[in-house]
Amino acid sequence: AGGVDEAQKASKPSKEPFPQHLRAQLVAKGLKSGKFIQGDLYMMRKTRFVASVQHGKEEIIISGSLALNRAINGDTVVVERLDAQQAAEYEGATQRLRHRVSSGDTVSEAEEVEQALDGSDALTFSGKTRGRVVSIVKRNKKLLPGSIQPLETSRMQGLDLEESERIFMPADERFPFVVVRPAEKSAKVEEHEGMRVVVAVGVWDRFSEYPKGHWTRTIGAIGDVNTETEMILIENNISYEPFSEEVIKCLPPEDFQPGPKDLEGRADLRDVCVCSIDPPGCEDVDD
Q1: Among its keywords, does the record have RNA-binding (predicted)?
Q2: What are the structural domains, with CATH classification, of the chain?
Q3: Which residue in 103, 148, 192, 286 has a CA-CA distance of 20 to 30 Å to 213?
């Protein structure tokens, strides 16, 4: 009976910032009965408030931070389908929410959800089942590059932060803002404002608007070409570390010259004028 009461309470929007996640026993029971489904959650482009979870041929749409219940892009989650009345209750709760943005103003979450579902995307999600996250099975551990909001700006927005805490704004708009501290306790956090940094999302309790995060390192100054290039590589999970000695040993010697067998089955372009589109000093020439 306790489990039923817990599920019924959680099925309605909570007055707290976020609803409780269900206990593992109740989640397992719901998955077995087919009431819940499990899958990977992916946000729509340029929003952290609208996502979908695919389960076989079924796609469930989750809109609004309450229904998302602290899930972030790429998480593996357990979702409960919402009937029309429940979906309307969550939509009504979403209409009342406002979130702080970097300009110091506030923006209605409902407005952002509406914009995300507007136009061609409205056709994609029209008639789809709505749902809510009841449990997060596996958190996406992706490192997030972005920038640090000045403390004064955050406090003007009403955020209660300690002197060493800052709001991290990820470059990828599908991820939430994160409350972070510098990796080293002795670091002067104000010196990192205006810099690109890398953060990993940590704990997100139900009483906090934003998750806590781990400030792993600082990339460099905003606007610097090398900094912005490295940030793009990190954002897209592209490895740019130097090749290991084991990999280097797989290469032929520097004085290698192709023989007849190496030319078999290959187009011979040695008589064709070839130019490079890459800048001087590049290591991976695309011709």
Answers
A1: yes
A2: 24-138 (2.40.50.690), 143-236 (2.40.50.700)
A3: 103
